[in-house]
Structure formats: C-alpha cells, structure tokens
Amino acid sequence: MRIERLRATPVAVPYVHDEIWAFGRRRGQVSVLLEVETDEGVTGLGEAAAYPSADIVLAVLRSVEPLVLGEDPFAIERLMRRIELIGTWHHVKATSPAIAAVEMACWDIVGKVCGQPLVNLLGGRFRERVECFFYVARSDPAEVAREARRASESGFSTCYLKVGSDEPNTDIERVEALRDGAGPSARLRIDANEAWAPGTAVRMIRELARFDLELVEQPVSGRNLDELGYVRSRVEVPLLANEASWTRHEQLAVLKAGAADVLSVDNQMDGGLLNLKRSAGMCEAAGLPVVKHSLGELGVALAAAVHAIAATPNFTYANQAYGALLSDDITEGFGGGVAGYTDGHVDVPAEPGLGVTLDPDRVARYAELYRTEGAAFSFGDPDPVLRSPALPKF
Ligand SMILES: [Mg+2]
How far is CA 250 from the centre of its chain? Predict the structure, then answer.
C-alpha cells in the first residue's frame, strides 16, 4: 500500500465564548483537516491545530509532501524519522502539528485496514473512557461562576481556568467565583501561561490555595526551569508543566530538574501519537503522571488522542479538551460541545481506525467560514501586548 495524495482543508469553528489567556485571545478553533489517500482506496483522516497559523501548517504539509508520497502508511516510525531528519529537524514547534496530522492519518489507515480501533494497536483498553476537564472561559466573575455551574450540571469533575491577568485581584475574584460555581467537591485547575515572576507565583498560589486547587499549570516561565523548581519548593499545590514540557527533550529536562509534579504531553506539539506514548513512558519511569495538553482540536484530533490516552496507564488526571468552548464539530456524533461528553468523559470510538466520520456539510460550512473570515479567527488581541509588553507580567 502506498500514499498517493494529501488533501488539506482549513476549517474554522466558532467558540461559544472567546478564549482569553494571559497574552491574547481567539474566537474559534481553526484546524487543518488532512485526508491522506492511498493507492488501495483507503483514506486516513488527520487534523492539525492551526499553530502557529493555518498558513504555516499548509506550508509544512506542502514541504513534506515529497517525503510522504509513495511511502507505506504502515511504516510509521520510518516515515516520521524521514520527515524529522530530512524535512523539519530543529524546527519542531512550528512544524509539529502538521507532521502529527500525517502520522494521525496513517494510524487511521492502519486501523481501517486491520479492522481494529486504534486503541487496540496502541496497547489496548487500559480504560474504557477518557476524562477531560471543562474549560471555563475567562470572563467576569459572575460569568465564570455561571460556567462553573454549567460544568457541574454537565457532570464534569474538573474545571480549568486561565489566570495570569493584568490585575492579580481579578484573578483572585475569578478563582473564588470558580469555586462558588463549581461546588466544594470539584477539582479546580488554573493556568497562568508563564505570566508570573517566581516571587509573584509563590504569593499568588499561597493566596489562591484556600480555594483548594488541584494543579497550577505553568505559573512561571517555561524557559528557565530554576523558576519552576523555586516555586515548587515553596508551595503546597502541585505544579503542572506545560510550556516547559513541549517536546520529549524538554520533558526530560523537567524530570531531571525535578521542576514539576505532573507533565503536559501533546501529540500535536511533538510529532505524533508514538511520541506521546514515549513521553508518557518516560514520565512513568520517573514516577509522574501526565496530562494531555491541547492546542485546540476538533473531533478528528480528539479521537486520535482519546485512543492513545485510553491505552496508556499514567494519564490519571482530567485531560485538556475544548468541548466547553466549541459550538460545533466537523465529525458525525463525536467531539463538539459538552453534549458529546458523559460525566466529563469521552467514550473511546469502537469503529476501525480513529473511528470518526466526517460530516461533509459541516466540513463545507466551516471551510467556507475559514475562507471568508479565517483571519478573524487567528491568535490575536493587540491590547495585552500594549498593556503587558513583558514576560513575566509582574
Ligand atoms: Mg497551558
């Protein structure tokens, strides 16, 4: 079997709430849908988050196409090494989502040919379903409390909120509202996206600890592990590395430095599902759990991640997902808003491969939305840059 053609389609799906974090905002999910066609008529689906942009994902796909066409989609390790060594070596962050989409589509092909859901090719069902958190959009405290109540009513056990705003008292008010809305038994995770200096992080986490936090994600810079280690040695709340743990090589550095209690891993940020399994294995050897990070994803990428997480023991925390923000999806009956989750969990698809089917009408609708309004969906918001031109913020 040989790969004959790559077909890439950018799509834009609106969020029900703008996503706002320490240094920007976006109004919807842009993904590049990838269809990989073979000479035997089997087509595999992949999806790349539009990171850093859809144009860059499309350019990377064009540049690796000569390395992919004519190759055997079953020879995934060899294909990925070929792309990495010849095509993208040293440029992991900007190229990884596109490459991960190629790998994802190959796994879909392999599963379809074998007649097996992907989970059965990655180790089998360690768990029957995968837990995800409810993404509470950063907003005014009353709206944060309303969203946290919606999380609780929808059956989610873990709520996630971005902090690291320009005004620390606002963060405190929002986290208080989060606890009020979510109720006493909910697990609360906050993410500062590197906004705080180490001393500020210690002060903020000690202040916010009264709201019984599950994890604090990347409170300080991901580039200087001494900062993360400093904070970890001075607070009781466990720390989750994210910007510090982009690739396996950075994850190894976090583990060696003892800088975090839990590590984020992400197949889209580090070249595919096999690397996600490697990341989880490395952390398991170090005695640490992992959390699936997301750059934002629709049903195709969510399904791929769910298969891998279901087959890997040390994903013991709720994983990052965008169900609470998404208004819709491009697949039939998978992903999309919170209606696709049961008690905060996603069922592992049972059909062969990724086990998801595209909805052609919605693919066409959201491809058209990307064509007409795609620029407005990109990472943006100049205001934070004007107000907070430096990192850390304070
Ligand atoms: Mg994060």
Answer: 17
